[in-house]
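Listing S7. Sequence submitted for prediction.
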Amino acid sequence: MAYEIPVTQARAELADLINRVVYGGERVVVTRHGKPLVALVSAADLERLEAGPDAAPEGEQVISSVSVIGSTPPPSVAGERRRFGIAAEHAPDV
């Protein structure tokens, strides 16, 4: 998640923002009227972004894939029964 800051405040804090990006590993989005204008990223981040998605380290690809998979809600039991035409279910003896 990127840190957002208005352009007027970014002007006054540019040196601090650069330090946060370079040494803190943060990404900063500069906004005007609440809309993103530019992003400050480290040179290493820029190289990775320009190299494309295939150049991402293996761990980042896995995390990205898992987060995409995890963002879809699991199907409901009732929905799955309808989908497969299942009218009844087995209830184990207690």
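Caption to Listing S7: primary sequence and predicted structure tokens for the chain studied. The domain at 3-70 is CATH 3.40.1620.10 (YefM-like fold). The chain has a mean pLDDT of 76.
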